Amino acid sequence: MRKGNGGDGGVIINMSSLAGLMPAAFQPVYCATKHGVIGFTRSIALAANMENYGVRLNTICPGFVNTPILQSIDKEENMGQYYSYKDEIKNMMQFYGVMDPSIIAEGLITIIEDDTLNGEVMKITVSQGIHFQQYGQTPFKSSKR
Q: For residue range 94-106, what is the model confidence (pLDDT) as tens digits?
């Protein structure tokens, strides 16, 4: 994929979650891995930009999406020690809302089609739709080549 290795460049989109942008007491491992996806993607995107790889990397962080996994919170065998938090999770679902998977597809298309997006963290929520996490500028902007 990397242009320097004979590839045509491209777009990589990693899936994270809003849990990657905030703490989640009832899902610490899930939360930590989603934070890691964001940090990894942003770091590799910066390197890809500095080295002119021709590859863009971005992350999508959806809120609650209407998929079968949401039904698993009522099953203790799925939640383990965090089963006692099921009511809090349901309250969060009610507060943030549950969206249709089609809005995630819209986000994917936006990232694929917009060549200016690299290292971005797209948040998708019922209340705010598709929007981006705001970060400060990094000191690294251009290629050293």
A: 888 999 999 999 9
